[in-house]
Design goal:
Pfam families: Plug, TonB_dep_Rec_b-barrel. By secondary structure, the protein is mainly beta. The protein has 5 helices and 34 strands. 5% of the residues lie in helices and 52% in strands.
Length: 706
């Protein structure tokens, strides 16, 4: 029995979020999936399955697709989201977020372009085009690459091979309207495919205005994004050769938690490779890729009120990532030995300017380079009913920074910090080791499982080389000013998880309890022992920017522990109750304090009635108070809330459906604990308050597949 949970959602034939029985999930495997037994899969734009047993309900939790795919990934058990704007959300998984959770699109990893992560990986996965989101259960296998916690991959819709020797057309289209922000999204696929060839084009357009909440409008939250993609594959008797080019263009879009808004992200993705069997029981995967991000953000284009000339800023940021991966697998799908290696080279450059003064510019991240070379071994097999996956990997990472240039209008404070940075080492190297062991016992309705792991994370180039005190913090968006630390050591997490999967005709239940002990956990801490006393050049420069209490990234010690579960209850053939529940606690071990930005306990429950082509239902999402907050970071407590939505779906035919619903039915005003704080002065959200959730609204979506 596989351990997969499928949160089924068919955009093109229904965008329904459902937990299907584990056995049925086997029908969803593709060449991009690794092991379904170790992966939670949210199906977003796949064709609705017709293989569901009569006692299982296929219809299920339906939502208005958010533009941000991170909000969909956050629906897994243990998930939550840092709400940094309509297109900039970051997934929090079991208390870890940011670079601690590996993010990829179409299997390709890459560095984000913005120094404050306005473009986290799922920024490049428009929900209207996402086919599925794979989330590694608890701990990412070593084959996925280095990752302290979980790993997430968003797979966009693509052309699929057929069983015919002749080319035949494939077409998918979808469109959605949402009243709360007057937004629309349209997207689709046009393709030709045969048993040997697949050639496809996908495209999407999304646009939304400032969203409304009970009591006003959250000014500065409008967004625009386009995506274009061309891909092809040729299948031989041995396997598939594939190639893909994708262009993502984000136009002016608001980021109220940040000091600057997006003016543009122009990003090009290229990848290609081979996946298949080169001999009997010998599989080969090879992938090469390049991602180029070009980014501009400012406080002039969208920000209300616009910054005065002396404080006007426009920041240019570039990031280029080159990746190479190769793996040999000996054996079958359930018993194999895999040997692999991967390389990643990233180049970044960030320049802060004043658009009203050409003599003011600062290279805050000059010629930042990171090179990583990794190798791993992974063995999967079984002894009787006991199945296991054992893996280990080693990574060598080298990082360096160039020499910053400053314009003549830059004051002496930053000049002194730049001189000190130039005189420093500006280089670092680390060798890290990861080990993962997973065991589960198959047979019958109950499947016990255990995971033990040692996982690591090398400090980011921002955490190490941020010589200029700024608000760049890889998306914390908390208004604090941070500075880097070249003496940082890699984080090391010791992880234990235990749980079971129970599945029968009327119930699916999957609880998990876990503990993570993290040595050298990296967190912002007061710059020195006298916070608020300006007695150092760093504090002087930070005070010039409005914060006399800067934070420095330092190694601390931490622990995270908790439990989560997902469930499906089927009391009748036409009724399904499904949901998730999550709770996590994060604490410092070196001092008496809680970790920063830990999500509150939450519960999501949906109930669906289905009969023939019609499905109707409701969903409740509730979060508890969060008063266990980081005093070191001046984190404020969060209030609990509960919101209710309604949804319905009618399938006119197998490939044509209409969906509609209402969100926040009782027009409840609430602000999620992980929502960031507004910096927009002209908004109905007071400066410094958490961005509230959207007000009551309706949405409608039409989908078609030919």
């Amino acid at each position: 029995m596989t351990l997969t949970r499928t949160l089924g959602a068919s955009l093109l034939a229904g965008c329904t979020f459902a937990i299907a029985s584990p056995a049925l999930a086997e029908h969803e495997t593709t060449t991009e999936n690794r092991e379904d037994a170790l992966t939670d899969t949210i199906i977003v734009t796949a064709k609705r399955r017709d293989t569901i047993a009569s006692d299982a309900v296929a219809a299920p939790r339906q939502i208005a697709l958010p533009a941000d795919a991170a909000a969909i990934a956050a629906r897994v058990a243990g998930g939550d989201i840092f709400g940094n704007g309509a297109l900039s959300g970051q997934v929090s998984y079991r208390g870890l977020a940011g670079e601690r959770v590996l993010g990829r699109v179409n299997g390709q990893r890459f560095a984000t372009g913005g120094p404050n992560a306005m473009d986290p990986p799922l920024h490049y996965a428009p929900s209207i085009l996402v086919e599925r989101i794979d989330v590694a259960r608890g701990v990412a296998p070593v084959a996925e690459g280095p990752s302290l916690g979980g790993a997430i991959n968003a797979q966009l819709v693509q052309a699929q091979f057929t069983d015919s020797a002749s080319l035949s057309p494939q077409m998918r289209v979808a469109g959605q309207y949402r009243s709360v922000d007057d937004s629309f999204a349209v997207g689709g696929l046009a393709a030709l495919a045969s048993e040997r060839w697949r050639i496809g084009l996908i495209a999407s357009r999304e646009q939304g205005e400032d969203y409304r909440f009970p009591g006003g409008t959250a000014v500065g939250t409008r967004f625009e994004r386009n995506l274009y993609d061309a891909h092809a594959g040729f299948r031989t008797d041995a396997g598939e050769l594939f190639v893909e080019y994708r262009r993502s263009e984000t136009d002016p879009s608001g980021n109220p938690p940040f000091a600057l808004d997006m003016v543009y992200f122009n990003t090009d993705f290229v990848q290609g490779g081979f996946r298949g069997q080169i001999a009997e029981d010998v599989g080969l995967t090879v992938r090469l890729g390049h991602v180029a991000v070009r980014h501009l953000m400012d406080n002039q284009t969208l920000r209300q009120p616009r910054a005065v000339p002396a404080q006007a800023r426009a920041t240019f940021a570039d990031a280029d990532t080159v990746t190479a991966e190769a793996a040999l697998r000996f054996g079958g799908s359930r018993s194999y030995f895999e040997l692999g290696g991967d390389a990643e080279i990233t180049d970044r450059f960030v320049t802060i300017t004043n658009p009203t003064n050409p003599a003011f510019f600062i290279d805050s991240q000059p010629d930042i380079r990171a090179e990583r070379l990794g190798a791993y071994l992974q063995w999967r097999g079984g002894v009787g009913a006991v199945q296991f996956e054992l893996g280990g990997r080693i990574d060598r990472t080298e990082q360096s920074a160039g020499i910053p240039q400053l314009g003549s209008a830059v004051p002496m404070g930053p000049r002194g910090l730049a001189a000190a940075f130039i005189a420093s080492g500006r280089e670092a190297d680390d060798t890290t080791f990861d080990v993962v062991a997973r065991l589960w016992i198959e047979g019958g309705a109950l499947t016990p499982r255990v995971t033990l792991a040692r996982k690591t994370r090398v400090p980011s180039v921002l955490e190490r080389f941020a010589w200029l005190p700024t608000e760049a913090s890889f998306g914390l968006a908390d208004g604090n000013i941070y500075v880097g630390n070249q003496t940082l050591k890699p984080e090391v997490a010791w992880i234990a998880e235990a749980g079971f999967d129970l599945a029968n005709d009327w119930l699916t239940l999957r609880p998990t309890a876990y503990y993570r002990r993290v040595d050298d956990f990296i967190q912002g801490t007061p710059f020195d022992a006298t916070p608020g006393v300006i007695n150092s050049p760093v504090e002087m420069v930070a005070s010039m920017s409005g914060d006399p209490t800067p934070l420095m990234f330092r190694n601390t010690d931490a622990e995270l522990y908790g439990a989560d579960l997902d469930f499906v209850l089927r009391p009748l053939a036409s009724i399904e109750v499904a949901g998730t529940a999550s709770a996590v606690r994060g604490q410092r071990r070196d001092i008496a304090d809680d970790l920063y930005r830990i999500p509150p306990a939450n519960l999501r429950v949906s109930a669906t009635w289905s009969s023939g082509p019609l499905a109707l239902g409701t969903e409740l999402f509730a979060a508890a108070d969060q008063d266990r907050v980081a005093q070191t970071n001046d984190e404020l407590a969060g209030n609990g809330f509960a919101v209710v939505g309604l949804f319905g779906r009618y399938a006119f035919s197998d490939g044509f459906a209409l969906e509609a619903g209402a969100e926040n039915l009782f027009d409840k005003r609430y602000a999620p604990h992980l929502a960031s704080r507004s910096r927009v002065g002209a908004s109905d959200v007071p400066v410094g308050e958490r961005l509230p959730g959207p007000s009551r609204g309706i949405w409608a979506r039409i989908t078609a597949q030919f």
